[in-house]
């Protein structure tokens, strides 16, 4: 249980656990929320009041859990949705492969005001969705192949009104997805292409495209062995997309969303794609692959081209695409490249509300020229200049976006995990920015 505590004696996030303080509960946690009203900070781009609630709820739930309390009632703390998010995210753990698992606490809303229950339920669904993404991304790659990921997507979609079509290699060949198949040819695991549909509106669909590299060795351009195990989460974009659809369907948001997920491993072998090879993407453009570790953009290229079949309102792709994004922004935000000022404003506000913010990066012709100024082929998969790796990657993707289509590219390499400093997330992969995507789409359903 929590008690709302007023005054300035308890610092924000500071928690005290008392025993025998209240007759109906064996223990009570008191947690500092900080100032009730905080001035708007245009530089931070985050709703600090909502974030304070998440952090406070997380801190107190963890304190009670550590004290052995396994049934916890949580007050709204002034924002029931944020309170639910902080509580549910903080107390979840990835422990699928432990023989002796910790018992996770059950968490409920306590003494709700009118309207708090609905807000609490919304926060619970959004936290559950992010936890789904966390579980998918932290699962070792031998237990999360393209085939297994497709099975998980089918399981998660049951009874939610989400249809799932699992396409195979023959289908990809019929669609002339030469870039996607070129990445897949080095692996013994068969590639899959998922097409998920959640239709609760008659409007043209929003299209989400998620990068689904279930393990990335770098291919022939082999990555260093240090921390290569983190590449089990190179399908974080795909996981976020599946989790977003789960939340939208659970909340019955009145939108039409199509999700496209190319799934493959990127492996070195005798049949693997080689540096210098030239391949042909679905839209007919030829690509010289100078670096086989720049594979995510290749599979996204064919998925972006395929999105034209649905006459989308907009297309958003999300991917752990470049280490350069981690260098640029660290774990502070997801980087966004877009041709739509209006959509970026909506996404920025969604990130502020969710506490999982975004930052706009340049999509200039300066970078496009580095990718397309070639004598013997149309596009190179890496830039010619020094630096700007995230920007040249986005410029590459832009070559495969359907004409006259509003588009956003979200690079989440910096927020993937596992060393994240968000106070209400534990160790491991983060599932970010699932809740931001949900907020982004919900905001447009209300227009």
TrEMBL record:
An individual GO BP term: proteolysis
EC category name: hydrolase
Cytosol aminopeptidase domain ranges (all copies): 291-298
Matches recorded under PROSITE patterns: CYTOSOL_AP (PS00631)
Gene3D superfamilies linked to this entry: Leucine Aminopeptidase, subunit E, domain 1, Zn peptidases
Reactions catalysed: Release of N-terminal proline from a peptide; S-benzyl-L-cysteinylglycine + H2O = S-benzyl-L-cysteine + glycine; an S-substituted L-cysteinylglycine + H2O = an S-substituted L-cysteine + glycine; Release of an N-terminal amino acid, Xaa-|-Yaa-, in which Xaa is preferably Leu, but may be other amino acids including Pro although not Arg or Lys, and Yaa may be Pro. Amino acid amides and methyl esters are also readily hydrolyzed, but rates on arylamides are exceedingly low
Keyword set includes Nucleotide-binding: no
Gene Ontology CC annotations of this record: cytoplasm
SUPFAM superfamilies per record: Macro domain-like, Zn-dependent exopeptidases
Record keywords: Aminopeptidase, Hydrolase, Protease
Database matches in InterPro entries: Leucine_aapep/pepB (IPR011356), Macro_dom-like (IPR043472), Peptidase_M17_C (IPR000819), Peptidase_M17_leu_NH2_pept (IPR023042), Peptidase_M17_N (IPR008283)
EC number: 3.4.11.1, 3.4.11.5, 3.4.13.23
Any one GO molecular function term: manganese ion binding
Entry annotated with the keyword NAD: no
PANTHER family: CYTOSOL AMINOPEPTIDASE, LEUCINE AMINOPEPTIDASE-RELATED
Family label: Belongs to the peptidase M17 family.
Purpose of the protein: Cytosolic metallopeptidase that catalyzes the removal of unsubstituted N-terminal hydrophobic amino acids from various peptides. The presence of Zn(2+) ions is essential for the peptidase activity, and the association with other cofactors can modulate the substrate spectificity of the enzyme. For instance, in the presence of Mn(2+), it displays a specific Cys-Gly hydrolyzing activity of Cys-Gly-S-conjugates. Involved in the metabolism of glutathione and in the degradation of glutathione S-conjugates, which may play a role in the control of the cell redox status.
Entry protein name: Cytosol aminopeptidase
Natural source organism: Tribolium castaneum
